[in-house]
Known about the structure:
Blueprint lengths: L22 H18 L10 H11 L1 H10 L1
Pfam family, one: DUF2274
Organism: Amaricoccus macauensis
Protein name: DUF2274 domain-containing protein
Amino acid sequence: MAKLKLGPIIEDKPVKVSLELPGPLHRDLVTYAEVLARESGQPATDPVRLIVPMLERFIASDRGFASARRARS
């Protein structure tokens, strides 16, 4: 079995997600948005808008997931 970065997750239909973030994680997202804005020369974005790209990047970089996905094909 592939070694994924996440444990088992219950499968469900796609839904709009509303979640609570721990304070330290939210502060990290705010700081990340500020650093990203400085480096890109663009105005700081809403930190919440970072979540989807971060999740996409996480999944894209998870070698165990990529291996398991190829095995399913």
